[in-house]
Amino acid sequence: MLKPSKTAFVPFVSVENMMRLVLHIGIEKVLTELAAEIEADFARWPLFDKTPRVASHSDVGVIELMPTSDGETYGFKYVNGHPSNMKRGLQTVTAFGLLADVATGYPLMLSEMTILTALRTAATSAMAAKWLAPKGATTMAMIGNGAQAEFQALAFKAICGLREVRLYDIDPAATEKAARNLAGQGLTVVPCKSAEEAIMGAQIITTCTADKQYATILTDNMVGSGVHINGVGGDCPGKTELHRDILLRSSIFVEYPPQTRIEGEIQQLDPDHPVTELWQVITGQAEGRRDARQITLFDSVGFAIEDFSALRYVHSRLKGTGLYQDLDMIADPDDPRDLFGMILRAEAASSTAA
Q: Is residue 212 pLDDT above 60, yes or no?
């Protein structure tokens, strides 16, 4: 067979190499650097193409594409959300993503994004809390102790100075798993038997559950003044975690309103209910936290720009590591017009070799 040219190869970051890259850099450093990358892209938000994710819903889950471009680089993520997968021993969320050069359309990198999505979601949460949470917050309640929980806790530790995480899940085995994984990570870890117990003394409340339904993880009477709520689990139509009355008492901050109004907690509210876009807070065009008694809510559903930031971060960190494989992905004939001839030459080369 004909040997592919250098142009044919696209770097691919496998799950194994993603794990090795994260361990090579250090997980808290990765989270901190990712948060900085995401914040920098939020600061140039108007430059990006923006569209709600393209979703294919079924009665068991959703499959989505999340594209964006800053005019120089294009990126997309494929991601699913299937809550019933856990019963089959499968991941609820899986993902992969691609970066491409806008000038040529050629791919720059293909990467796993199941692990990377967990990292970027946690980094985004902590980055938002840096702007919205009460000053000096040191304790977080983590309601929902599934695949995302440890990433959230470590991101808040690294970026916001979190010292204590209070864990609760309806499945005690999930809480035991999260507590075990967080042992020795520099946090005080307190397993709790109810959401109410977990919230006691917490200045930050993170909800991150998987059920695809209108759920009430937090009721209005559970949430006092002055807290910051990081709502992660509500991320598609018909899936929420917070009682509507909590939303009515909160200052609500979102990524991209046209998407969040369909998928986030605010799908419970009127279409014109006021919200603030987080990028405007970062650029000084809007207020974040105003006073100590204010309840702030980051209604996080995940947006394509965050994935774009994460892919660019990984791409920038690959050089010199060898933590990728070259995939023969792009047909590269000697004459760009002669793709068929490339097949014929391959056939001839194969016959000669035989």
A: no
Structure confidence at residue 214 (pLDDT): 62
Return the bridge partners of 65, or none. 54, 78
SS3 69: strand
Q: What is the pLDDT of residue 217?
A: 82
Cα–Cα distance, 81 to 92 (Å, whole number): 6
Is residue 290 within 8 A of residue 80, CB to CB? The reply is no
Its sign, for the CA torsion 35, 37, 39, 42, is: negative
Residue type, 194: S
- 88, 112 Cβ separation under 8 angstroms: no
Encoded tokens for 10: 């696209």
The backbone torsions φ and ψ at residue 80, rounded to the nearest 5 degrees and listed phi first, read -120, 165
Contacts of 17 by beta carbon, 8 Å cutoff, 6+ apart: 323, 324, 325
Looking at the annotation, which residues are catalytic? 235
Give alpha helix (H) positions in the chain. Answer: 15-25, 27-42, 114-132, 149-160, 172-182, 195-199, 244-249, 257-263, 278-282, 304-318, 339-353
Domains and CATH numbers, the chain: 6-113+306-332 (3.30.1780.10), 116-303 (3.40.50.720)
Over the Cα atoms of the chain, what is R_g?
22
Using the structure block, give the residue that is written with the tokens 């650097």.
33
pTM tops 0.70? yes
